[in-house]
Amino acid sequence: MIKRLLPWLLKGGISFGLIAWVLSKVDLASAWDKALSMDGAMVLLALVLMQAQIALGALRWGLVLRALDAVFRWTSTATVYYIGVFFSIVLPGAVGGDAVRMWFSRRAGLSLATAVNSVALERAMTVFALVLLVCLTQPILIARIPDMPGTWVFPVLLAVCVIGILVLASLDKLPASLHRWKLVRGLVQLAGDTRKLFFHPAWSLGTLVVALIGHINLSLAVYVLALGLDLDVHVLDTLVLVPPVILIMTLPISIAGWGVRETAMVTAFGFVGIAADSAIVLSIIFGIVTMVTALPGGLVFLLAGGKKMEQEELAEEKAAGDLAVGVHTPPSPLP
């Protein structure tokens, strides 16, 4: 019980602590007035963009699966991906959604190695595209904010990403004497899958483009919300400021990014003259829009995942009974 509650307590403490700290620095009355002035039409448009974001994510993962020669229908890809999105907002840290996606894709017929590697490599490509986008837009950021500190960080991160990909692709070079270990054999498979994705231009470039479009789409969603709040923000400002915020949110140190996102948004948009109370409202509304967009994934889970889990439990009980009489009934795949 302690092990189950500890991540919630630690990450929940970080989220609430950061939110409390940010709120202590803003004019709450002004922030409330700003929230009440929100244009509902812009919120609806942001919801549409965030739904498109989920479709782009499913497409990105689907391309990775096909690069790995996995047999997985697009309907199953979209279903499992949406379930993962839902759990990413109800489990502590974004990694929880990835673990659920691995579990469901394994149950849906993928091998364990393909289920794990496809999600891991899709996440790696997503982060690589995010860092690349930040580096590509950095000249615009420097022109906009000449005294911006830490401009060296993201080029270094990009180099680290490239080195990391090369290391992953070389894991099968480990001594043959180590291949008797199950973990090492898994790393060898990961190396081969990494090369299938990143070393084949058709798959790597296609997946990279979809990932870049997804990050740009997120920036546009924030820009639309900023327009709804009547903030003096240019679309280029969101294009260069939102990706670093999203990158920081990928750190699994909070619950669904709450607290981390607010702190990063207030800091980032402060560089372009946005008051802290306006930035905190923008961040909170963006978080709410993200949650509302992800919630239907819970319904998908109940219709596809929840029923399936119950069926599998019954099938496992039946299989255990049949085994006693020498009969085995395999579970049916996810529809």
TrEMBL record:
The keyword Nucleus does not apply. InterPro entries: L-PG_synthase/AglD. NCBIfam families: flippase-like domain. This is Uncharacterized protein. It is found in: Cell membrane. Coiled coil: none annotated. The keyword Metal-binding does not apply. The chain crosses the membrane at residues 41-59, 80-104, 124-145, 152-171, 202-226, 238-260, 280-304. Its main location: membrane. Keywords: Cell membrane, Membrane, Transmembrane, Transmembrane helix. It holds the Pfam family LPG_synthase_TM. It is a multi-pass membrane protein. One of its GO terms (cellular component) is plasma membrane.
